[in-house]
Amino acid sequence: MADTRTVLSIRGAERRYRADHAALAGADLNLHAGRITALLGPSGSGKSTLLRAIAGLERLEAGSICLGATVWNDHTTHVAPETRRVGMVFQDYALFPHMTALANVAFGLTGPDKTARAMTQLEVAELGHKAKAYPHELSGGEQQRVALARALAPQPAVVLLDEPFSGLDRRLRGELRERTVDTLRAAGTTALIVTHDAEEAMAVADELALMDGGRIIQTGPPDDVWMTPVSATAAKLLGDVEIIEAQVTNGQAETPFGPVDANGFEDGQPVSVLVRPRAFTLSLDPDGPCTITRRRSAGPHLTHRFAGAGGEWSAQTPAPSPIREGDRVSVELDPVYVRVVAA
Ligand SMILES: Nc1ncnc2c1ncn2[C@@H]1O[C@H](COP(=O)(O)OP(=O)(O)OP(=O)(O)O)[C@@H](O)[C@H]1O
Fold it and tell me: 91 C-alpha vs ligand 1 centroid, how far in Å?
């Protein structure tokens, strides 16, 4: 059974840079022992501010941040960044350019064996042979690995990674992503990784936290969050979704593609029906109500745009498919990929 002990808890965190705008507007989040949480949100939603607040680089105006029973922040306390047991990997890695890889990793360490410990950490990152190299002599991926080694070397309670893969090309990103997850797991570290890439968040996360407007709007295992988004905003953060506004009648929400179960909402209530592209099941039908307007291959599946039923919609369909542009189709919804939430 995985350890779900809360290591870090954030309650009602508020931070305003301007009087009329809260970068953090009451954010709540728990980080659990040895687990990787991915923080996903659009640009400007407050992700970096939350990370900086955990690191002690921002003061909160309200709320609290606690490591176990130790208060790092509340209305009276602000523990200095250097005394928090936090490791940081910044977006640009922030390595010291005039120091070797080894000196960078040893930087935060103390004690007579600090160089040996830094070397061990570099070896874990498979960069022992680059110990004497300066950052400009390292590739982007190697720099990121040195930055991660530096963050992990002091055995911090929490590691924070701010968009750690964003400067790298797609192939290297995937590789480095897996290596980073392996390294964090091997170290048993509690980690928070910020990203605005849904696919990346789903790939790295044990737990996913969705952020919007300075608040955490949903948390949970990635599959659960994907299958059961709490709102249209949450669903949109994780990928394409069609949103159909509907009213509940006899326990069902009426859509142009037939009724769907109203998920416990009461009759008369306005709801949003969230339909993932893969929910649409298309069948060739000369008398069907919809017409294919566009067909695109996307590797293992196809994207079919179709018009009719009061709008234009996107379906993700299995490849190969005989359905071509201009064909008429009938459309059904697979309820597995449909979710009804409050409007
Ligand atoms: N130093 C600052 N001074 C003034 N406003 C700031 C400052 N830092 C951030 N903000 C504002 O606070 C809000 C949250 O910013 P933040 O950088 O935390 O968002 P983010 O989710 O990390 O965005 P991104 O994905 O683009 O990095 C934004 O409206 C931003 O403009």
Answer: 14
